[in-house]
Amino acid sequence: MRDRPERQMQDLRPTVWIGKQGCTETMIREIVSQLKRRRIIKVKWLQNTDVDPEDIAARARAVLVEVRGRTMVLAGMNTSPAGMSAVQAAGGPGRTERKRTR
Fold first, then answer.
1. Which of 51, 65, 78, 82 is deepest in the core (most CB within 10 A)?
2. d(CA 37, CA 41)
């Protein structure tokens, strides 16, 4: 039995921790580097650190998949369709909404 995509992201261990200095260019380079090696990464930050997940995703040229508390999940822009299925199933990028026509 395969795990659900939400469970896969929940089981993902944080690989980047943002400390009291905030998200520096060095942190952005590390996020970009890890996204080249992995399809999806988890980033956590300290409670007393002011972090804007959307800004970090934009600076790293990544897709912001999910934010919960002080944790965010990022996916690389060039993630393969097989890797994106987990992201899409969780309601992330690639999900299209139909417009109602009358």
1. 65
2. 10
Residue 21 is given by DSSP the state T
| pLDDT > 70: percent of the chain | 67
| Residue, of 98 and 2, whose pLDDT is higher | 2
87 within 8 A of 65, measured Cβ to Cβ: yes
Question: Cβ(29)–Cβ(56) under 8 Å?
Answer: no
User: For the chain, what is the largest distance between any 2 Cα atoms, rounded to a whole number of angstroms?
Assistant: 52
Beta-strand relationship, 40-45 and 16-18: parallel
pTM of the model: 0.69
Alpha helices, DSSP H only, in 12-52?
A: 25-37
DSSP 8-state symbol, 23: S
Distance separating alpha carbons of residues 22 and 79, to the nearest angstrom:
27
For the chain, list the domains and their CATH numbers. 5-89 (3.30.110.60)
